[in-house]
Design a protein that fits this description.
569 residues, mainly beta, Jelly Rolls, nine-stranded antiparallel beta sheet, 3 helices, 44 strands, globular
Length: 569
């Protein structure tokens, strides 16, 4: 037997074979490359572009597939269709799908191009890491993936279309559920002539080609970054961008898809992002520029909304925000006993619009605001969601099982606020869901701690215990409850809000709560950790030992086994 340095050739082959199996196999077997919690495609940290794609789908469609993480996905082949994921931390993975009708996506981190991802595969592959990054600065980030432009989006020559799928994302940091502020909001200073219309995500957008004034919008924000969303179209011109009064850049909003071909196809697209600003208060101003792309038909600037990136990190920023979830007590809750600082109950008698709160609470817990487009709201009653009180207004005392519900489009629901300062506080939120998944999240206005987010799938009711304190006084905690998924076979499930109870100090307790928090994520492990930097997993193959015929055969067999159960997407 031939030996090398005392080892048989067969032993060397066995060792090489083991190493080979631990190496990534490229397109045919892209896999999760690090252990990190995974979040579903309906997570509110994701902003999907909206608009007509010419096929009856509004930007990104949603569907279910048993091979998907969580059983569902968002998909699109819309020209210039995109999504943005907000997170705080140092690493990120886009989990998607590959198949014979998938295209090439451009990917960006914090507004900077980091390459492209080819999602083509001759067979359908599920839960693939299409892009991964590590070693990022510890703070808020925005990842974007974008389909190519009209009329010929990039795709592999073997592919039949340009689809992309958002199945989920993974990060050891924290997803950030950040509100999009409409340019119609009172906080935005408007100069010149602007015309307003409805927008799915922010509520209202605006447009102007007023170059004589020139027209401008100024948005004040607190944090370390800011994003501008709009309608890139064939009639758009350029906009000048100023931060804190200083000129930064000029953005070309032109997109080759003219209204005469397909109107309003790229709504809520990311136009500009700034990151790495000093933590604190800032302003961004966008101004209708005096020039346009030679191919554009006009000078319009169209703005859908602004998103502020908070001053936060995975290690926190002087504040604290944590939470846990438990099944609701079937006997209900005593609002007077638990809401020692304030309480609020929505939907008394099953009537939407009825609000009772603690007479001496000073209205610290606000009434709800509706969130998201396509909302459909109302009130109902259920004996499993009972609350009682003896110090309320306008109803002094009572026992009630009413609540308010939201069963509109995914991403719609309610938000409310409570004051936050340097003293620790605890907020208990009593909520539920019917045949749907709901996501509850919390955000401190000074961004001094990572956002909290948790999802539960109904039917059921839960008590969320949120403990928080800000780095400075005069802040607010915003709590958002959204419908983020439909149970299989249902489209009219709802997210339901019953009551909230505020306590000073951090010693929360739910009178029947307790237990470990319900997890909204799936932690996975892998056999190979990523190297620092970006990894475009959808287009990389490793064949270090291909010359050995036995190893090549083993690789082919492995590929076929992994692809054997894949279905056409």
């Amino acid at each position: 037997m031939v030996r090398f340095e005392g080892r048989s050739i067969f032993a060397l082959i066995r060792r090489a074979l083991l190493v080979f199996l631990l190496l990534p196999l490229g397109v045919a077997s892209a896999h999760r490359r690090q252990s990190a919690p995974m979040y579903d495609d309906s997570n509110p940290a994701i902003v999907y572009s909206q608009g007509n794609n010419g096929g009856g789908v509004n930007g990104w469609g949603s569907g279910s597939d048993p091979g998907d993480f969580g059983g569902g996905e968002h998909y699109s082949n819309a020209f210039s269709g995109s999504f943005v994921v907000h997170f705080s931390g140092t690493d990120f993975q886009w989990i998607g799908k590959m198949g014979p009708n998938f295209g090439i996506a451009s990917v960006f981190m914090d507004g900077q191009s980091v390459g492209t991802v080819d999602s083509y595969s001759p067979t359908v592959l599920y839960q693939q890491v299409l892009y991964a990054a590590s070693g990022l600065a510890d703070g808020a980030h925005a990842f974007e993936a974008r389909i190519g432009d009209y009329p010929s989006p990039d795709r592999n020559p073997s592919s039949s279309d340009c689809y992309q799928v958002m199945d989920g994302f993974a990060t050891s940091g924290t997803p950030l559920n950040l509100p999009m502020i409409s340019p119609q909001d009172a906080s935005v200073t408007k100069i010149g002539t602007w015309t307003f219309g409805p927008n799915i995500l922010s509520g209202a957008y605006c447009w102007s080609n007023d170059r004589s004034t020139p027209a401008s919008l100024t948005f004040p924000f607190s944090g370390t970054g800011v994003e501008v969303y709009g309608h890139p179209e064939g009639e758009d011109g350029m906009m000048d961008v100023y931060i804190d009064g200083g000129y930064v850049t000029t953005v070309d909003e032109f997109n080759p898809l003219y209204d005469s071909i397909l109107s309003d196809s790229n709504d809520d697209s990311l136009l500009y992002v700034a990151t790495g600003l000093p933590a604190g208060n800032h302003t961004i101003q966008v101004v209708v520029a005096q020039s346009h792309n030679p191919n554009s038909l006009d000078f319009y600037t169209q703005i859908d909304g602004f998103i502020a990136l908070p001053a936060t990190s995975s290690s926190g920023g002087g504040g604290a925000l944590s939470g846990s979830s438990a099944g609701a007590d079937p006997n209900g809750y005593d609002l007077t006993a638990l809401g020692t600082s304030d309480w609020a109950h929505w939907g008394r008698g099953g009537v939407f619009g009825n609000l009772d709160d603690k007479a001496s609470g000073g209205g610290q817990i606000s009434d709800v605001s509706q969130v998201g487009g396509g909302s459909n709201v109302g009130g109902w009653a259920d004996p499993s969601r009972t609350v009682t009180w003896s110090d309320g207004t306008p109803t002094p005392s009572g026992t009630d099982d009413g609540y308010i519900w939201s069963n509109g489009s995914l991403g719609s629901g309610y938000s409310f606020t409570v004051p936050a300062g340097t003293a620790p506080q605890t907020l208990l939120v009593f909520y539920g869901a019917s045949t749907a998944t709901c996501t509850i999240s919390a955000h401190l206005s000074d961004g001094s701690a990572p956002d909290y987010s948790n999802s539960n799938t109904g039917p059921g009711a839960w008590l969320e215990t949120l403990t928080f304190q800000a780095a400075t006084d005069g802040q607010v905690l915003t709590v958002t409850l959204l419908k983020t998924g439909n149970n299989a076979g249902f489209t009219d499930g709802s997210a339901d809000l019953v009551a909230a109870m505020l306590q000073s100090g951090s010693g929360g307790g739910g009178g029947g709560g307790g237990g470990a928090p319900a997890s909204a994520s799936l932690s996975t492990t892998s056999t190979k950790a990523p190297s620092s930097g970006e990894t475009h997993c959808g287009s990389v193959g490793v064949d270090l030992l291909a010359p050995l015929g036995i190893l090549w055969m083993f690789r082919v067999v492995l590929r076929r086994r992994r692809a054997r159960s894949a279905l056409e997407g």
